[in-house]
């Protein structure tokens, strides 16, 4: 909260936060080993907006991660609609050989 208060109070600090979500589905986030859930992410967004109401949010998303289902993908779309990001960066998951060797137990 200290950093958020600083951003809110200082006119010379840009009111922008890039908060990568990667997915809007907790099961996919767990497979990605992100260390947070959809609910925790949403709570963080709400907390940031409480402190900095005019915040500019951007985020990254990966679609098709390790057999992502249509339902899991719809959770990502609903997160995008809920948060109302100012900018999103969308990427399609692709398995590369090096990643495969490092992460084959993730999928």
TrEMBL record:
<dbReference type="GO" id="GO:0051536">
    <property type="term" value="F:iron-sulfur cluster binding"/>
</dbReference>
<dbReference type="InterPro" id="IPR007197">
    <property type="entry name" value="rSAM"/>
</dbReference>
<dbReference type="InterPro" id="IPR023404">
    <property type="entry name" value="rSAM_horseshoe"/>
</dbReference>
<dbReference type="GO" id="GO:0005829">
    <property type="term" value="C:cytosol"/>
</dbReference>
<dbReference type="GO" id="GO:0035597">
    <property type="term" value="F:tRNA-2-methylthio-N(6)-dimethylallyladenosine(37) synthase activity"/>
</dbReference>
<dbReference type="GO" id="GO:0005739">
    <property type="term" value="C:mitochondrion"/>
</dbReference>
<feature type="domain" description="Radical SAM core">
    <location>
        <begin position="1"/>
        <end position="107"/>
    </location>
</feature>
<dbReference type="InterPro" id="IPR058240">
    <property type="entry name" value="rSAM_sf"/>
</dbReference>
<protein>
    <submittedName>
        <fullName>CDK5RAP1-like protein</fullName>
    </submittedName>
</protein>
<dbReference type="Pfam" id="PF04055">
    <property type="entry name" value="Radical_SAM"/>
</dbReference>
């Amino acid at each position: 909260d200290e950093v958020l208060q600083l951003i809110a109070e200082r006119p010379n600090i840009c009111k922008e936060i890039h908060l990568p979500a990667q997915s809007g589905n907790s099961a996919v986030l767990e497979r990605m080993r992100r260390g947070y859930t959809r609910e925790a992410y949403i709570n963080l967004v709400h907390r940031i907006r409480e402190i900095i109401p005019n915040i500019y949010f951007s985020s990254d998303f990966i679609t098709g991660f390790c057999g992502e289902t249509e339902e899991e993908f719809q959770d990502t779309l609903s997160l995008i609609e809920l948060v109302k990001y100012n900018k999103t960066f969308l990427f399609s998951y692709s398995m590369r050989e090096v990643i495969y060797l490092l992460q084959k137990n993730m999928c």
